[in-house]
Amino acid sequence: MSQSTEAKPAQPSVAEANEAVRRRFPFDDTRDLEDARRGFLGTAAESVVKDAEGRVVWDLGSYGFLDRECPATANPSLWRQSRLCSDHGLFEVTEGIYQVRGFDLSNMTVVEGERGVLVIDPLLCAETAAAALALYRAHRGERPVSAVLYTHSHVDHFGGVRGVITDEDVAAGVPVFAPHGFLRHAVSENVYAGTAMSRRAAYMYGAALPKGERGQIGAGLGQTTSTGAVTLIPPTRHINRTGQTETVDGIRMVFQLTPGTEAPAELNIHFPDHAALCMAENATHNQHNLLTLRGAQVRNPRVWARYLTEAVDLFASASDVAFASHHWPVWGRERVGEFLSEQRDLYAYLHDQTLRMLNQGLTGPEIAERMEMPPALERAWHTHGYYGSVSHNTKAIYQRYLGWFDGNPARLWEHPPVEAARRYVGFMGGAEEVLRRARRSYADGDFRWVAQVVGHVVFADPENAEARELQADALEQLGYGSENGTWRNFYLMGAYELRNGPIGTPTVTASPDVLAALTLEQLFDALAIRVDGPASWDADITVRWNVKDGDPVTMRLRNGVLTHGTGTGSTPDVEFTLARTDLRAVLLGTLPPAALAARDDVKVTGDAGRLTELLGHLAAPDPDFAVVTP
Known about the structure:
Layout: H1 12-24, H2 31-37, E1 40-42, E2 48-50, E3 56-59, H3 76-86, E4 89-94, E5 97-101, E6 108-112, E7 117-120, H4 126-140, E8 145-149, H5 167-171, E9 176-179, H6 182-191, H7 194-205, E10 237-239, E11 245-248, E12 251-257, E13 267-271, E14 276-278, H8 301-315, E15 321-323, E16 330-331, H9 333-358, H10 364-370, H11 375-379, H12 390-402, H13 417-427, H14 431-443, H15 447-460, H16 465-481, H17 485-500, H18 512-516, H19 520-528, E17 540-547, E18 553-558, E19 561-565, E20 574-578, H20 580-588, H21 593-597, E21 603-606, H22 609-615
Helix pairs in contact: 1-16, 6-7, 7-17, 8-9, 9-12, 10-12, 13-15, 14-15, 14-16, 15-16, 16-17
């Protein structure tokens, strides 16, 4: 049986469910549409943004199809959200504050000062940031960048910085502001588990999926991720406390630190002279993630809610507009207070009700199925699960408090996926019988069950074309019905890869700039997580680094573990005396051991080949690992 590679129409049950969504919610409420288009000044004449080699990294016109009526293959609520997020151009927020929206997953905000501009959150890649700044200048004049501010440590808020300033600008005095702890979190997240996160982000944002009614229509928080050069210039000035004030180029700012909310290092900013409040990514027009599907540490909704309460208390009564680094602003003091309060109530309710049910003995999946939101919150479009969801956020809260194990000993030591799949398929009478029954469930519209049960057939026999096709069909229907943009992308990416083979990872966040920002401590840690443990059980290698401008560091590979410390007790197999820059180059893999030993300014004592042997025990990560197949 040949396998189809084409996306298919929506099944009647999905089309009917999507139509029910249209009847259930107030689609005639146009306030968000009016807000999203308020202050529009214009957009770029050229619809595509390209890198230096001419490769398209962002296409402003790729979502033009969203102007049409929502088809049966999309949830109308998500279609509405994507339509709002796809508006692109330069927008005036209030006098002196502008946003470039729709040029990346995130927004870039420009605040005008006495001489130049403050750039807040310069997007994900240098190419889109440069295009955004060029658009601003086309409408507001060639003002220099006086300062840059990163609101938090996620890559879509700093990765484009070299599109707006250079190292020379920083050396000449242009400050780069960031919250306390920014650099440590920004680089560690993108390096330690960066390969796995990037691969899963390819599913989450669907950047490589075909765009269209049966494909990628958005990610809820924004449309998708750009695919240009991720850059980083380390901050030069840090915000260390709530209430800290800074003035740059005549722009007065009052800060609120919000660590442990949407990011481990994050802040909000009040502009008292503009009566404007920047909420970073702490209050946006969707329910956010407490555990992002690409993978991360679970966020704390209790802390998140408390910081939103603090923001209301500190700033709401003095703010005529609230804007964020995604979506569109909210105008009017009463509306600002209401918006922030509802966002606060959203995360507090999820936290408290999950804990209530958890303490009644319910498991994460059971809580997710039972959780109902208060009608007043459900009526507010900005609480809808376009990016986070009630389902996966409640499971995240359960995980935060109780971990992966639900307490049932039957699930304490389950077989891994392939071994379990083979047993399931055998118990169910073989692959043909499973597929026969699954087709009946598919016809009944039970796509969740089809995906669950046919997944076992695929993992038991990944070459079974009929199973792959049915699994792809079921995932596709689940995507068509999803209100959540990242769920839709995950489902459709799974279907696409089952039909067409792996797409890979379109955006790489562990860029040279990010790697260069790692401390020596982080570099040693990054090496340790690459050790092939079983292949290194019998290895015992000690290397000492005598850094000319610092303390000596001894690293030892033993028992499959690579440790490091400043102790000099053990006798090394080889000892290098060298500059810090050379050590960093070796640890980053840009300076081979043989080339290091040949340097005149490097002193080597012992067998230099032992370093080569140690590095030979490192395994390369796989950026294209399988997701929907074994």
